[in-house]
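hey m, so remember when u said the tokens were messed up on ur end? i reran from scratch. heres the input so u can diff it against urs
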Amino acid sequence: MDFWRRMMNDAPPPERQPPEPLSEERITTGYRMYWTKLAIAWDTGRRGHIAGRLAEVFGSPGFEDNMLERRFHVPDLDEQAHSGASLQALAEVLRALDNFDSAEDNE
């Protein structure tokens, strides 16, 4: 709609704003959203299994909570490498889903 209005009015296009730089908060939020979308479909057995695999990766020598560099593989998760921050976000999502499931059981 905006396109046609500008074409008909001969108005100059609006000035483009530069993209907002990636901050640690934005990166972490993106990771949490991504993992929530995937992990919510997993059954509790898979969630527990992956949580255990994450603990192994977190305890391995050389693990660090880096933001973007994909260096860490988690057995049984997928074939991709992930950043430390992404895996930390997955662990947080798994804990939150576990807490949510536990709260539902108590009602």
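this time it looks ok to me. The helical segments are 2-9, 24-39, 44-58, 84-105. if urs says something different then somethings off w ur setup not the seq
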